[in-house]
Specification:
With about 475 residues, the protein is of the alpha/beta class. It has three domains: about 180 residues, Aconitase, domain 3, CATH 3.30.499; about 90 residues, Aconitase, Domain 2, CATH 3.40.1060.10; about 180 residues, Aconitase, domain 3. The protein is built from 16 helices and 18 strands. Strands 5-4-3-6-7 form a five-stranded parallel beta sheet. Helix 2 crosses helix 5 and helix 13 runs parallel beside helix 16. The radius of gyration is 22 Å and the shape is globular. It starts with 6 loop residues before the first helix and ends in a 15-residue tail after the last helix.
Length: about 475
């Protein structure tokens, strides 16, 4: 028997409370993130059964999905959103849970504020009633989304019952070219594997490209893991990880940090450990990406044309239906297509690094007249950094405005909805029919591609606008 373990095995096995033969594992959860959409029914279940939250100190609540991104000091107008936000506040108070609502300095998107405050740590198990919880895997954590009944289970027991997924390692070797970002890497992988290519697996990302990435870039990649069907994604922690976590509010300090570091430094895949599946890609094949259809797997390099149906896996009728919804044709060139909206934000690309990238393109240029741009920071920390670094001044000079933190147009559960028939270049994670508003048409892309579209009014290769250093 091979005693070598993968990173995933090490973290998972160390959290198994009980193994059920021919059944799931009972897994202990270190951190439970809660927001206003999936928690009200879970808390109601606790009340009906007269059960308390077992570990309120391991539970963190923030408002993000339903929050407006302008005039947050005013009452929320939408009745459903207002009720869900009120319920989260009341439930957090009743059960002694940390709550960061509108107006709180720590408020923001759940998967942005978790890492910012050191709640996210290497080797932890992290769950949330949100599919993109996989973001936290960038720290070498096992993080995944759960349903409402499971939210209730974790609140009550600090454990969850889960079948152990299979393991997959995705290697990307080499160095990224000019204008290619972590978002492009993720969209490229999904385009190669399809949206079901990693179903049933927990993915470890490895190789030079991921070692070279910043923590924010790694979060973007892990965030998009579930868009290829994976249960989650993770990257082995290293010095970048440790330096990011150290000193943050909820991170261990003193002797506790020494103890944690002793554990964190063991979190890597042993040489010779076996994966159920392993794939390797060459970074040289990745260029800035953009989607053209109605799932994240329908993506191409921005210089390419939309594939013809016969060249794509899956049903021809479904493929053509997707293009019909988007009002695109087989063989169309994506570059040059007019767009109406640009959205920079979400738990995928709402961090300071994303705003720096966006600003680097728009600096010295002007927003196109035909474009409405929503620039939404993922948290108040990001918002503060945008101002302190002078990015806001540059954005204002280019004709852009900054909104307040929240999920915004990623899923249009607030007032930030793309109108029917309009095209939005979006840095978020999903482009399903109506995802950003009924009848909206979404083109997923990186902050650089979004910025290029924002100043030209059409799909544009950002490399055309980037300054190439010459020796």
């Amino acid at each position: 028997m091979n005693s070598k373990k993968t990173l995933f095995d090490k973290v998972w096995d160390s959290h198994v409370v009980q193994h059920i033969e021919n059944g799931p594992d009972v897994l202990f959860i270190d951190r439970h993130m809660v927001h206003e959409v999936t928690s009200p029914v879970a808390f109601l279940g606790l009340k009906d059964r007269g059960i308390k939250v077992l570990h309120p100190e391991k539970t963190f609540a923030t408002a993000d999905h339903n929050t407006p991104t302008i005039n947050q000091h005013l009452p929320v107008e939408d009745p459903l959103s207002a009720n869900q936000l009120k319920a989260l506040e009341e439930n957090s108070r009743e059960y002694g849970i940390s709550y960061w609502g509108l107006g709180h300095e720590k408020n923001g998107i759940v998967h942005v504020v978790g890492p910012e405050y050191g709640i996210t740590q290497p080797g932890a198990t992290i769950v949330c009633g949100d599919s993109h919880t996989s973001t936290h895997g960038a720290f070498g954590a096992i993080a995944f989304g759960i349903g409402t009944s499971e939210v209730e289970m974790v609140l009550a027991t600090q454990c969850i019952m889960q079948a152990k997924p299979k393991s997959m390692r995705i290697n990307v070797e080499g160095s990224l070219s000019l204008g290619v970002t972590p978002k492009d890497v993720a969209l490229y992988i999904i385009s190669q594997l399809t949206t079901s290519g990693a179903t049933g697996y927990f993915v470890e990302y490895a190789g030079q490209v991921f070692r070279d990435m910043t923590m924010e870039g790694r979060m973007t990649v892990c965030n998009l893991s579930i868009e290829m069907g994976a249960r989650g994604g993770m990257i082995a922690p290293d010095e970048k990880t440790f330096n990011y976590v150290k000193g943050r509010e909820f991170a261990p300090k003193g002797a506790a940090l020494d103890k944690a570091m002793a554990y964190w430094e063991t979190l890597y895949t042993d040489e010779g450990a076996q994966f159920d599946k392993e794939i390797t890609f060459d970074a040289a094949n990745i260029e800035p990406m953009i989607t053209y259809g109605t799932n994240p797997g329908m993506g191409i390099g921005i210089s390419n044309n939309i594939p013809i149906a016969s060249a794509v896996e899956g049903g021809v009728a479904t493929y053509q239906k997707s293009l019909q919804y988007m009002a695109f044709n087989e063989g169309d060139q994506m570059m040059g297509k007019d767009i109406d909206f640009v959205f920079l934000g979400s738990c995928t690309n709402g961090r300071i690094e994303d705003f720096r990238a966006f600003t680097s393109i728009v600096k010295g240029r002007k927003k196109a007249d035909n474009v409405t741009a929503w620039l939404v920071p993922g948290s108040h920390q990001v918002e503060k950094a945008i101002k302190e670094e002078g990015l806001l001044d540059t954005l204002h000079e280019a004709g852009f405005e900054l909104r307040e933190p929240g999920c915004s147009a990623c899923l249009a559960m607030n007032d930030d909805k793309i109108p029917a028939g309009k095209y939005a270049v979006s840095t978020s994670n999903r482009n399903f029919e109506g995802r950003q508003g009924p009848g909206s048409r979404t083109l997923l892309a990186s902050p650089l591609v979004a910025a290029a579209a924002a100043v030209t009014g059409k799909v544009t290769d950002p490399r055309e606008l980037m300054e190439i250093e010459t020796v």
